[in-house]
Amino acid sequence: MLTVDRLAKRLRNWTRYRTTVRELSQLTDRDLSDLGINRSEIRFVAKKHARG
After folding, report:
1. Average pLDDT, integer, range 29-49
2. Pfam families, from UniProt (predicted)?
3. How far is CA 49 from each of CA 4, 24, 34, rounded to the nearest angstrom?
4. Is the pTM of this model over 0.70?
5. Which end of the chain is more exposed for a tag (fewer CB within 10 A), N or C?
6. Is 30 helix (H, G, I), strand (E, B) or coil?
7. Residue 23 covered by a domain
8. What is the dihedral of CA 20, 25, 30, 31, to 10 degrees?
């Protein structure tokens, strides 16, 4: 069973994930390359970031 704290943490992580995906998706391929990220890696990077 999910406690309120665990549910709140999941919501924060999901929000952080979606925000990161949105922001990285708006960058150009060159900007992503400067960060060392391929466009195909955006979801992976966002998931890693969201989990802290």
Report:
1. 97
2. YjiS-like
3. 22, 12, 18
4. yes
5. N
6. helix
7. yes
8. -30
Secondary structure class of 13 (helix, strand, coil): helix
Query: Considering only CA atoms, which of 28, 29, 19, 27 is closest in space to residue 49?
Result: 19
| Structural domains of the chain, count | 1
Task: Single out the residue of 32, 30, 50 nearest to residue 41, CA to CA.
Answer: 32
- The verdict on residue 2 lying in a domain is no
| pLDDT for position 2 | 75
Q: What is the pLDDT of residues 8-30, one digit of tens each?
A: 999 999 999 999 999 999 999 99
Task: Decide if 6 is inside a domain.
Answer: no
Rounded Cα–Cα distance for residues 47 and 2 (Å): 21
